[in-house]
Amino acid sequence: MPPNPPSAPSKELHVFPNPAPERDYVIQFQIPEFTCHCPLTGQPDFAHFTIDMVCDKLCVELKSLKMYMWSFRDEGAFHEKVTNDILTKIVEVTKPRYARITAKWYVRGGIYTNVVAEHRKKGWKPDAPVTLPAHSTERGLLG
Amino acid sequence: MPPNPPSAPSKELHVFPNPAPERDYVIQFQIPEFTCHCPLTGQPDFAHFTIDMVCDKLCVELKSLKMYMWSFRDEGAFHEKVTNDILTKIVEVTKPRYARITAKWYVRGGIYTNVVAEHRKKGWKPDAPVTLPAHSTERGLLG
Amino acid sequence: MPPNPPSAPSKELHVFPNPAPERDYVIQFQIPEFTCHCPLTGQPDFAHFTIDMVCDKLCVELKSLKMYMWSFRDEGAFHEKVTNDILTKIVEVTKPRYARITAKWYVRGGIYTNVVAEHRKKGWKPDAPVTLPAHSTERGLLG
Amino acid sequence: MPPNPPSAPSKELHVFPNPAPERDYVIQFQIPEFTCHCPLTGQPDFAHFTIDMVCDKLCVELKSLKMYMWSFRDEGAFHEKVTNDILTKIVEVTKPRYARITAKWYVRGGIYTNVVAEHRKKGWKPDAPVTLPAHSTERGLLG
Amino acid sequence: MPPNPPSAPSKELHVFPNPAPERDYVIQFQIPEFTCHCPLTGQPDFAHFTIDMVCDKLCVELKSLKMYMWSFRDEGAFHEKVTNDILTKIVEVTKPRYARITAKWYVRGGIYTNVVAEHRKKGWKPDAPVTLPAHSTERGLLG
Amino acid sequence: MPPNPPSAPSKELHVFPNPAPERDYVIQFQIPEFTCHCPLTGQPDFAHFTIDMVCDKLCVELKSLKMYMWSFRDEGAFHEKVTNDILTKIVEVTKPRYARITAKWYVRGGIYTNVVAEHRKKGWKPDAPVTLPAHSTERGLLG
Amino acid sequence: MPPNPPSAPSKELHVFPNPAPERDYVIQFQIPEFTCHCPLTGQPDFAHFTIDMVCDKLCVELKSLKMYMWSFRDEGAFHEKVTNDILTKIVEVTKPRYARITAKWYVRGGIYTNVVAEHRKKGWKPDAPVTLPAHSTERGLLG
Amino acid sequence: MPPNPPSAPSKELHVFPNPAPERDYVIQFQIPEFTCHCPLTGQPDFAHFTIDMVCDKLCVELKSLKMYMWSFRDEGAFHEKVTNDILTKIVEVTKPRYARITAKWYVRGGIYTNVVAEHRKKGWKPDAPVTLPAHSTERGLLG
Amino acid sequence: MPPNPPSAPSKELHVFPNPAPERDYVIQFQIPEFTCHCPLTGQPDFAHFTIDMVCDKLCVELKSLKMYMWSFRDEGAFHEKVTNDILTKIVEVTKPRYARITAKWYVRGGIYTNVVAEHRKKGWKPDAPVTLPAHSTERGLLG
Amino acid sequence: MPPNPPSAPSKELHVFPNPAPERDYVIQFQIPEFTCHCPLTGQPDFAHFTIDMVCDKLCVELKSLKMYMWSFRDEGAFHEKVTNDILTKIVEVTKPRYARITAKWYVRGGIYTNVVAEHRKKGWKPDAPVTLPAHSTERGLLG
Lengths: 143, 143, 143, 143, 143, 143, 143, 143, 143, 143
Ligand SMILES: [Ca+2]
Ligand SMILES: [Ca+2]
Ligand SMILES: [Ca+2]
Ligand SMILES: [Ca+2]
Ligand SMILES: [Ca+2]
Ligand SMILES: [Ca+2]
Ligand SMILES: [Ca+2]
Ligand SMILES: [Ca+2]
Ligand SMILES: [Ca+2]
Ligand SMILES: [Ca+2]
Ligand SMILES: [Ca+2]
Ligand SMILES: [Ca+2]
Ligand SMILES: [Ca+2]
Ligand SMILES: [Ca+2]
Ligand SMILES: [Ca+2]
Ligand SMILES: [Ca+2]
What we know:
Ten copies of one chain form a homodecamer. The first copy, chain A, is α+β, with helices and mostly antiparallel strands. Chain A contains two helices and six strands. Chain A has helices at residues 62-70, 79-94, and strands at residues 15-17, 26-37, 44-54, 58-60, 98-105, 112-120. In chain A, the strands form two sheets. Chain A has a four-stranded antiparallel β-sheet, covered by helices on one side. Chain A starts with 14 loop residues before the first strand and ends in a 23-residue tail after the last strand. Chains A and F meet through loops of A and loops of F. One calcium ion is lined by residues 134-136 of chain G. Chains A, B, C, D, E, F, G, H, I, J: Its main location: cytoplasm.
């Protein structure tokens, strides 16, 4: 792969082999630069996306993810639909054990909208979570 | 629907078909601009509402939600009652799998009051939660 | 009830009928203005109280709660005891399904003390909690 | 007890009878002023300790706790060991239902170290936790 | 051990005997000063690592951990791979009951990447977590 | 004055004699509960007001200020105009040495608007400010 | 003006008469939703704009400001140039006494860029600032 | 002086000789535990006081300051008056070069009140402040 | 210029013509990813740099700045010296009206070090600053 | 100088030649790990020190500063005196153009004490400060 392939919006999402498929580890992407259009009014919408994944055989390639998110820039998309569509796409190309999309949209009409959707591979179960006996420091009254 | 129907307070809550009914995904609305009256003294009260929903066949339309919350502006309403009434209304028009209302009221007499109520559709069970082995960064002692 | 009955410290806690007894909803009071005396040295102590309740037939009336908390102003009270006593009182007058008292005391001798106590009505069980697949936004390294 | 007995570092930890032994309530102490020495280099170390307890018949007396923590000032102590030793001491004098020690140490060599240890009385089980359907307010994207 | 052995990057990780092997206590290291190279472009990458461990017979020695993390400074390493490799190394030298690595990488192409991986010793089970009935203070609406 | 005169919106602002007219001291009021209407669309607007004053012979009475701010609830008012009108009113009734109004309005159309206006009595000069050689603690890089 | 004229990107900035031209008061707009293109690579850029103004005879109309900022969505623009161009435009249509533009751009190549530019009307002088003898509360060491 | 003289509320403020009268240095006291009564309604008021001083020949003794602030606990006091009275007292007993009192009062009727007053010794001038070319770190857009 | 010239550490700093030389506007770069070596011990050091500039005829090109900062990765450099050297370099290539470098270094030996240096072009004077009568919102006592 | 000379508390403060004496640049040290004794009661005191300097011919060597601050660990010292003494010492060994010491002490008797003292070389004047027309982003009402 050349060091810097040209950048352009794209509906293709590249993948690469999971370097540690023997573990159920988590990859999280934070994408604060997302914009599309409101399909009713045509006005721009902005959101902050978070993607959490437990990959199986394939991981999402970072640069193609950036170009994929860019591809919505000139499209109209309802808050609820675009969140679910991005999840569906990621599931399609990586067939992950688990994926979760969180979208936090900028305020409209005085109301903030957040949408969260997840996918679980059939038969896959998360490891029982290890809750460590640690906690945030309480600062007493004055903090 | 015209792009910008006239805005007015309204007790009607519009709905639209859930674009991804095959998933139990979450929609959250934050409504920091809520005001009504204290039914005893007539003085204005202010609150920040949060609505969390797992929709079934129908979603709440954002603009009608804004006009619905506005409709309480000239009504008297006890903290505990108005929170429950809004939940009841949302359940009535969307018949959701799950809905939760959180209301944080401004301080009165030196006391802050928060009210939280939820509804679950009969027979509906949330997916077993996936607790990912990720955590907030601890900053050691100095943070 | 007259709009503004005279205010005075009082050991009486007024109640009113729960407007939504069909639901296990939560009422939380934050009371940052609490002071009493140290029973050993007579010096003033200060604390921030939080009260969480799932009411049954009765709710706590806000103004009487304020006057009840005020009634400790001239009393001596150990941190551990006053927290438990306030819980006992609230349980006595409202017979709630659930009540929890959190008291955060100002630093004494370089040590901050926090006390938490709870009461559950016999036979009452909280609804299985609904853990929504939403999470706080991770901000990456720089946040 | 005289109002202000003389203060000095001490390995003795005083106790007093639990005023509400009928409940499994929690007492938390925050001790931000702890210092000892590194046993290898002799250099001073600093930490912030948090102690969480569900007492049984006895509670820890606050002033003696301060003097006990002070007693480490001129001792050499490894991070992992001193945390466990303080837990062992508290267990020995109060025989609590539950105790947990959290120590957050100042950065050394660019690394922050936090240690957490807990003790549970044999046969004691915590009450099933009541997870109230309340959550932190989400602030949308801009908060 | 001499007080200050010479510092140099090293792939060796020193250990010392666990001072309290009778308990499942937690040691957490925060390492905000990590840098390596992107294997594709050769450009520097930066990350903040968090290591959580329940040790068995051996603990990680702090200074060698610092030199081990330093050893990646001139190596190329994918985000997903280096996180897993560091976990594998720690498991190899300490054979812990539990270990978890969290890596938060600086933003690249407008996207923040976080990776979390964990290891559990065969047959080891975490103690059932004790969830104390305490919670963060809610500050009402204005905080 | 009776302890609790009835509360109602009012355009009257009560005053009382300045208890320390020999000093140029500052009184600041924070009023987070302000709402009026947009005069164009009729939709509700919300703002947080801050009033800073150096009084001369008269101070603003707190309860009447609350009722005065309430009096805008059913009025239409442009952001820029209402801020200036409130300043004009306060100047009219108290003839202060100095007054400053800060209004922070909730977001509209994705834009946050803040307005600040001040009044200085003719001939009045603020004392040359005393800038003490104190500063906020810098926390180094990691805070 | 109709309540809701159609929204579209526009290079026109509407104005209205300053309702309080007798005062040098400040209007601040916060515009967190700005995006344009990098003129070299074509990739999207995002920024948060702040506009501070002391108007003279004319104020900027809020809705047209939103549409003006939107008009950059499909244009290429260097960070330094677009900030100065927006300032030039605002000066041209409102001829303000003072205007300041602050643009905070999202990170590129690991570097955050902020640009600030201001315009002062010839001959205009800001009032000597009134520095009130008030300050942020210091919280001592533990806050 | 005995190590721990008995504590009681007191109107006497003790002083001790300034250890560095050759310098204009600043001493700041933060007193978050202040309570008195509203003289009209008799209800308790709470405030956080900050005292900044440039002493001349005498400094305020810390323990007597604590007992002095305690002495207001059972007194009625208007916000504006008590702040000025405390300043007057401190000036009387220490004749400082400079003193400033900041009082932040808990919310009443939805309004927060802060009062600030200062005293300057006749003929005393603060050193011209040294404004160092240092500033808080800007974090770009995402912080 | 090709869209993506190859990246490598470099001591060359590229410039481009200032697009608005008629104004004294400010460009600020935040560079959180800086690392070099301690010249005494060879151990890695990390810092966060902030560069504030009022350019004259030339601006610093962003990508070359990144490669310039990267060029220190394998060099030994004292905190005080490297900060001054970077300032000297920037002055040399852009001959700015004003430049300021702030470097915040990670903690070493329990001490955080920050260094700030600035350059002013001979004869250049900053515009008299415009201090707008706006201020941060005070939140009263409880925030 | 050997890479790691033995560490011990010391009253000696080492210096080295200022690498950029042609500029008035600022060096700031943050020292959060300071402890001494109260000379009256013998109890430990803790503080966070900040040292700001404009050096002349000499700079303070970091490691000796750490050992100097450590040397107060077993000494009794009044808050006001120790702050002034440390300033006097630093002035004595480096003869700086400017030095400022800020000490923030842990709460005692419910009161937080902060002390700030500064020294200016005779005839030295700080450069007129450059106040850049930049400011912190205002977040509107909801942030
Ligand atoms: Ca934690
Ligand atoms: Ca997390
Ligand atoms: Ca920190
Ligand atoms: Ca959340
Ligand atoms: Ca919560
Ligand atoms: Ca943000
Ligand atoms: Ca908690
Ligand atoms: Ca300060
Ligand atoms: Ca302030
Ligand atoms: Ca702190
Ligand atoms: Ca600063
Ligand atoms: Ca950030
Ligand atoms: Ca401000
Ligand atoms: Ca507080
Ligand atoms: Ca700033
Ligand atoms: Ca808020």
